[in-house]
# Entry
Amino acid sequence: MAKFVKIIIAICALTDCRIAAYAAKLLYKLPDGSVHHKEISLAMHDCTGNQAVLYGAAAVLNALKYPCRVEIITPVNYLAHNQQFTSKWREHAIVDETGRRVWQKTAEVKETNDDGTEVIKTRKIGPIANQELWEKLLESYGEHQVTYMYARDSSSDLSTVADLARSAAFKLKNESRKSVTRTKQEGNGSADDVLPPW
# Structure
């Protein structure tokens, strides 16, 4: 029987400096009945919150050593409701000039036929964002049975994880500022040489 693992994932995105972080808390029961937990977080430059949560979910699933039943709990709609969309996106993929399958967003549109009857048709409205990260997430499922649950920030575990993500993001932001300030003071080249990529 596969082990059951609960994963709580939250993000923090600092849009003013293009830094985003994810944090995750893994909870699972040991054979003696006690609950073991592990917390991880990572902040990244030049990253959006949506990219961070996809990267984080894939990284956490890849870290599991055995096939598990996994419940991912998150306040991020983009991740929580992904199973509704990814199969549609893949179904309506097109092949671009390089031979790569490009997933497409779709929309239901009402149209009137020549005989005056209304029909609903599916129209492709363009490629989806972050396809590579979505693909990595789907690959990370491997032998895991993954389900998602949307939750608000109200639970104590979720607020703890959100605080971890916030801390990681602000730590990276502050380290970036120190790096720029130190270079200005030392006079080694211009500050532009070491500015973060935003």
User: Anything to note?
Assistant: The chain has a mean pLDDT of 83. The first helix runs from residue 49 to 63. The chain has one domain: 3-92+130-193.
